[in-house]
């Protein structure tokens, strides 16, 4: 004690500094140790999948998603609704009046929630616009939707009465399907459905709508441990002509409870959190069922992109009753044709000739998966859409094709001649490369050839008729 009293002031300061330095080292070592222990425990919990493994996993996913949303989705032009423009051409660039199917063409565009109806020369006959903010309310499962600029109508189809039914898709959010609405010719809402509808829908002659919805589920399956929660699962729903939900079927349950359940085991590693990624639903009506041996009237054809599966869902027994896989990759829009064949967009299955593009449109015999007709690109007319896209068999036997990533619509004859072509006329500067232009994707299109066209112009178009399969 006497020694301490005799220590000089400077010596006391040095001693205090040394003590403080030691304290800081100890405190730092303490927190590093705590961090190391926490990391070790966290790693054990995650690898061993013991509680609270799922909570930690969910928190990590939520934080990662929030960070990505805040940092990646800042500019509209950086969304995957936009792609690099492949040409300076806009509007109709090819029109063979003698061989093209006359009518009006309806398409939706990635630059916003709107759809356009054009004539064969590319002139705008009608346009609809209605932002999601006009129909969003507290009943929506999406409490804080993205800005309207970050959405578009993935699909827009004309109802039997000439009204337009549309589906809203958002970027940077999950679920990304925001719902559906029916709007009149003046873009006023007739009804809205705020279930998380996504991708596609089919309209029955009586006005009912068969749609796809998605939601997070936390259930598990005894024999499918790889299907860990939470998952983004798909449902097939039936809406009344007034947009009211009258039935809802879990598509994953329908597959797991069927004789095709083992197909789930071949899902790629990246797909377990969105195992089916259902991108198509087509109603099998009475005419379609006549020559199609694998489904009855009222069933629906569905497409599971990452599994490479085309299937038939019986909405009555809520079970998959038929499924097949083929040479296609990342497929969209399988349509049952009047002769019983299936027409589909094969997004990435054309591997033999990379100069022609990776996409094809295939017509297959569902009994054998044999290709009975196909269209693929050439070096001079490259055909390439890695995601989205669809096709429509026209009354004259031609096929209208939507090349989404290229922002292009075109019509081909059975022999593969292009007799009509249209490029989305909208362009914007690439924020990452001012020397390049961007074009909004065209997710889906249809040619209107029947009496509905008369609602939007003075006379009904004269249809080219023929025996189409």
From TrEMBL:
Signal peptide: none annotated. It comes from the Bacteria. Keywords: Membrane, Transmembrane, Transmembrane helix. The chain crosses the membrane at residues 25-48. Pfam families: Arylsulfotran_2. The lineage of its organism: Bacteria, Pseudomonadati, Pseudomonadota, Alphaproteobacteria, Rhodospirillales. This is Aryl sulfotransferase. InterPro entries: Arylsulfate_ST, ASST-like, Quinoprotein_ADH-like_sf, WD40/YVTN_repeat-like_dom_sf.
